Structure prediction request, 624 residues.
Amino acid sequence: MTLEQGIVLGVIVGIFGLFAWGKWRYDIVAVIGLFSLVVADVIVVKVLRREDSALIDPESALAGFGHPAVITVAAVLVISRALRNSGVVDLITRQLAPFAKNQTLHIASLCVVAAVLSAFMNNVGALALLLPVALKTASEHGRSPSLILMPLAFASILGGMITMIGTPPNIIISTFRDEYLQTLADQPEAAAYLDKIGGVPDSFGMFAFAPVGGLVALLGVVFVTVIGWRLIPKDSLKSAGKDEMFALKEYITEVRVPEECSFIGMTLGEVEKDTGEKMMIFGFIKKDGKVMTPNRNNLVRAGSRYLVKVDPVDLKAIMDQSGLRLEKELRSRIDNIEGEDVNFTEVVVTPNSQLVGRSRAFLRSRTSNSVVLMAVARQGQPIQKRLGDVEFRVGDVLLLQGVQDNIEEHAASLHLLPLAEREVRVGIFSKITIAVAIFVAAILLSMFKIMPTTLSFLGAILAYVFLGILPLRDLYREIDWPVIVLLGAMIPVSGALQSTGLTGEIATAVNNLTESMPAWSIVALLMVVTMCLSDVINNAATALIMAPIGVGIALQMGVSPDPFLMAVAVGASCAFLTPIGHQCNALILGPGGYRFGAYWRMGLPLEILIVIGSVPWILKFFPF
Prediction:
């Protein structure tokens, strides 16, 4: 192994380690990796005097941000917003009501719609649109939302595999394949290999992934609809019913004990028993604001302040009955809200929200104190801090109080998803027709190779803007900028894998270890390894690292790279074991009331089924 190869391997291992650690967001980690390569290249060239360094060219280190894959991912997100604005999605979801009477049909109808929508728009956006619909219909029919939301999230992920634009890994695989094969065509020494695989094959089109991705989506949707939801742990199921449609029973808020409170003189244990265990007191707030764990035998005294875990509906009843009050600062902020339409709204922190990693102070500054944070609910890990010290995470459910118009405005600007019954907004029929026609035209231009996918989608965006379907204020709102930065930074890192020859070294090692194994098993192994990585790090980063390795293995074996690239595409999109593996999984964590360990119960059998079902299908449509 050369010095350059060792450096690239060290950087990639470091990137994977930082991804798994989770201290910094994935886009920051990707930039750290890119910058590390640039610094290493400067040292190798300027200090070690190795002018032939193949690490990375510092002058073109940022070229990844102009890569077609990056532009295509951003364009798909913008088009998703335009389709939502036109009313197309709402028109589809309005047809789901008749199917909600039967539980299996209820789950199946939501999952099918989610999968179809995710094939043509961002899967997180599709899930966000269907989440309120799922919660509303589950409540109306007395079903636990936990039985609905995990199948719905998994179906959104599965649907993205059907088309080239459905998920970032497919876009990455498609563009990487074109660039790699073109590079080979320019190398005389690769002529024998190209002749063996039948020359340079055509580019992957819009539906090139459909034979495999469609089967995976079909298998997955049938599984989660018929079997999967039955595997969700019973202790993860939220109670059902209209009164608790969106209410989580683990909200954290602050209360104080006034002079007239009936709890004075009782022990904390007696207070919890008196409330029917509906309120758990888990923190005592000292005068300096610090929180300590209280003794259950401590007596309640006037003026004491506590952190409690309680359902908001139960808290109101307890306050009315006992005289318990909200903490003074919280109460004063509520009293300062003016307006007749003051109410409570529950919102979920989405992956794109500016609140992620921020505290209540940031929320107050962004909303000009027009919205009050009443409580926070988080699944998996208890919150042992005061509300002002809590750092928000993806999937947290926030209970906000304020004027309804203010809450809706700030929820939209901060990318918070309201968990409230919403009226289905049906766009003007002509706008729906035009929006669909423009999108279909863009796809046809790409399918028939009249125009590259990236440019045809940019043309569609311009049409949406000119026709008023996509207001300028919404133009960049839906773009997932951390993913864009991740892709732009990781593409040069992926290129360094190839330019230093490290992919060849890894491929040789793999072939030596698997020389006695049949070729199909190597495809399956590559898929499984990719799946494992995708469960703990971003799927786009996984595809960028594993695609060159898959191609290197194919080159060593002297076979077509397509089955290996398809295995990477499928594996990178299958992140079903943890809530951190995919943004869709994180989005339902709070509303579904799931624990961290609930995902693998359904996700592991699903991933096994996908490997068993997809490998033969890959080899049928993409033979060696």
About this structure: Residues 599-621 form the longest helix (23 residues). The beta strands are 251-256, 279-285, 291-292, 305-310, 325-326, 342-349, 371-377, 397-403, 416-418. The radius of gyration is 27 Å.
